[in-house]
Write a structure and sequence with these properties.
With 91 residues, the chain is an alpha+beta fold. It has two domains: 40 residues, no CATH class; 50 residues, IHF-like DNA-binding proteins (HU Protein, Chain A, Irregular). Helix content is 43%, strand content 31%. It has a three-stranded antiparallel sheet with strand order 1-2-5. Strands 3-4 form a two-stranded antiparallel ribbon. It starts with a helix and ends with a helix.
Length: 91
Amino acid sequence: MRQNELVEKIAAEAKIKNRAAIGRALKTLVAAVRSELQTKGKFALAGVGVFKAKERKERKGRNPKTGESLTIPAGKRISFKPAVSLKKALK
């Protein structure tokens, strides 16, 4: 689902006519998630789940094109654990 489709769905469900305000609210939500992940490493949204920033260690890899060994640098990745209510909704 694209952002404009989500804005339309929210507008229809919540009966809000100001789509620009909905778009700004979504952008603010994404910015809040990004900020919390950068500062605290975790963002929980009730009924949806928990996003966590996890450290990934440096590891060995291989270039699939040439077969050459290389070192993949350490970095961060984002993991998501869905809420129980979300899991049950999908069954």
